[in-house]
Amino acid sequence: MNIAVIIPVYNAAATIQRCVDGILAEKCMQQGDIYLVDDGSTDQSVEVIKKLYGQSGNVHLFQQESQGQAAARQKGLDEAIGDGARYVIFIDSDDQIERGMLDRLAGVIGDQLLAVCGIKKIFPNHVEIEARSMLQQADTIKNLIIHFLCQNQEVDMGLWNKLFRTDVITQNGIHFRGNNFYEDSFFVLQYLTHCTPQQIKWVEQPLYDLYKHEGSTTYTYDKHLGEKFKWYVTAVQELMKQVGIVLPTDVWTAFYFRTALHFIHHQLRLGGQWTSRDTRKKLRKLSLNPGVLKRLPRKYAASFILIKTFPGVYHKLYRMKRRND
């Protein structure tokens, strides 16, 4: 079992040992390699890595000027493929894996194309578990994509709980784009367009610990997020044309709403100046209809109704919830 673990590193001196030591403890890593790509850290990350793992034959450090995690992941992926890795997984330097995670994924993938486990989302004041995926209900590639776009949870969108095959990646030209929002979701989506539901193995246990904290990409204000939002929507549309998957209009509406809501939440949480008028403008082209609401999980259908009808009330309730998290 030849597994490559790719870890983008940026100012992770305080967490990198916890992350890497947990990976090295997996039995399958006796024949695996870790690719650490430092993306211009300004703390002691590089020094810590060199001190702890400088003599380790299967821990490799690469350094680049700050280009973002997408470029760091692509650098690690290129190196791993060049070294002949058969499988690859992406892990974040401030997270950690539960004991046995990689061994479980490696043990179930067999001749299939993808192995996925559940996640544990660790917030400052509480923990949330996502062990099952809505994607497990799909019976065709088209339904798999529809569930991914409309019904997704974080367990579906993230890179870090998935063991990929490098031959699928190389044969289909799957790669990371230069955005640091949505690039992980788009990578997963590209990969899923080449998998049938029967070629995915599921481990219904929360084996990846995802730490939610200030300073991470999703908790840092990005003034360019509007451009990245537009890029993601357009890129998904172009990908569907490329692979020949035709989706109903209500799917596109539900997908746009899910993506737009993520953008609105980012503005409400971190932007400060976002108003009800801004939300109305963002969602003005979307119409409330039963077809779209049926495509969405219940909580998102309820959010769609409330935010379209009373955006000011929605803003207030969301901000109250964030203060209590």
The total beta strand count reads 9
User: Please, what is the CATH homologous superfamily of the largest domain?
Assistant: Spore Coat Polysaccharide Biosynthesis Protein SpsA, Chain A
Number of helices: 14
Gyration radius from CA atoms, angstroms = 20 Å
Please write the CATH class name of the largest domain.
Alpha Beta
Low-confidence stretches: none
Q: What can you see in these coordinates?
A:
The protein is an alpha/beta fold and 325 residues long. It folds into 2 domains: 3-218, Alpha-Beta Complex (Spore Coat Polysaccharide Biosynthesis Protein SpsA, Chain A), CATH 3.90.550.10; 248-324, no CATH class. Helix content is 47%, strand content 17%. The protein is built from 14 helices and 9 strands. Strands 1, 2, 3, 4, 5, 6, 7, 8 and 9 form a 9-stranded mixed beta sheet that branches. Helix 8 (183-192) packs parallel to helix 9 (225-243). The protein is globular. The protein starts with a strand and ends with a helix. The model has no long low-confidence stretch (mean pLDDT 93).
